[in-house]
Structure formats: C-alpha cells, structure tokens
Design brief:
By secondary structure, this protein is of the alpha+beta class. It is 28% helix and 25% strand.
Length: 208
C-alpha cells in the first residue's frame, strides 16, 4: 500500500521587478520582515519581457531574485503569492504618480530537483493550488545542470538565474546534510534523522 513520505524543505525566493530603486528597497524590507533574513541575491538583470509590462510598469525595468536563509515548507506557496500580490497593491498606493504598477513580485522556491514559481495565470503545464494561484516547474535540475522547458521564460534561462539557483540548491543541501534529511534511492526512501530533529510529515524541523 502507498504511504506518504516526509517532504524535504525548500529555499523560498522572490523575484523583484521594478524600475524604481526605492521601490525595490521597500520590497526587500517587506520580504525580510515577513519571511526572515535574505541569504542569497542574484545579480540585477534587465527585464524586458517583449514589452508586455511596458504599459503598466514603464520601461527600464530591472529584476533581482532574493532567497531566504531558512528553508521552509512549500505547502503554503499559494499564501506566498497572495501576500506578494498584497504588497504590490500597497506599493502602488505608496508610490502613486509614477507607473500604475510600480512593483511586480514573483515568489517561488528551489528544491534539489526543481525551481518552482507561483502565478495567477493558468496554462496547460501549470497546476492549480487554490485561491486563484497556480504552480509551475520552471527549471529542472538533471544531469548536474539546470534545464528549462518549452514554457520557461527567457529571463529564467540566464546565467544570473542559473547561478542563483545553484547557490540556493547548495544552501538547501547543506541544511539537509546537517539535519540528516536526505532522501535515498532505497524502497523506504528516507534516511531517518535523529529523533526530534530533521524533516517530518508534521513539518517539524523544517527551519532548524
């Protein structure tokens, strides 16, 4: 009979997209206050997206990814996206007089095997979570490298994002080594950590 298995924690991240440095700083403060210390940051990248966002966000957009220090449970991804949506509305209210949408926030997470994004847009490859939020596997780690898919946006195929994903994956693996929570290829598929630590079905130990 099938049994559920303990789930590894993930490294949470947020993509911050804006043309205004003061809005980027505002967003980083909100993210850190809510979700803890930022441990990894990508190099800034131009964000063009074929001009899709020009009307509401203006030109000269820049994108940076920030990742939290503490691994966490991925089961609340929909809540993360709802929270970042709320921050976007707050930024629009605080920074009026400029672009209609001064801030775009895309939360997601990195595991040993994949980079996942939350989105409000449905597509054939996206899985519905709840409350109008979908999840997408944007990158997959296989054969020692990150690979994209037919749906992966160009801005997630860049060297800057790959470097960021590698650092997040390394951070997660060091955490799993420390708590003894690595999955294995055995039938029972999990190395059991010492009693009272590590990853469990209840989520205990995810941020140790």
């Amino acid at each position: 009979m099938a049994k559920t298995r303990p789930i590894e924690p993930v490294i949470r991240f947020v993509a911050i997209i804006t043309s205004l440095p003061e809005v980027a700083r505002w967003a980083r403060i909100r993210i850190a206050d809510a979700w803890g210390e930022v441990a990894e940051t990508s190099a800034p990248m131009p964000f063009v997206a074929g001009g899709y966002y020009d009307d509401e966000m203006g030109r000269g957009l820049s994108k940076v990814l920030v990742a939290m220090a503490k691994p966490c449970d991925s089961g609340t991804l929909a809540d993360w996206k709802r929270q970042t949506n709320e921050w976007e509305w707050q930024a629009a209210a605080e920074y009026g007089g400029g672009p209609a949408r001064p801030l775009n926030l895309d939360p997601g997470y990195v595991t040993q095997a994949k980079l996942v994004l939350a989105t409000v847009k449905d597509r054939d490859h996206r899985i519905y979570l709840r409350d109008g939020i979908f999840a997408e596997v944007t990158l997959t780690y296989t054969g020692g490298q990150w690979i994209g898919h037919r749906w992966t946006y160009p801005d997630y195929r860049t060297p800057e994002v790959i470097d960021f994903a590698n650092r997040c994956r390394h951070r997660l693996r060091e955490h799993l080594k420390a708590i003894g929570g690595f999955r294995t290829a055995r039938k029972h598929s999990f190395l059991q950590p010492d009693r009272g630590s590590g990853v469990s079905n209840s989520g205990e130990g995810l941020t140790e």
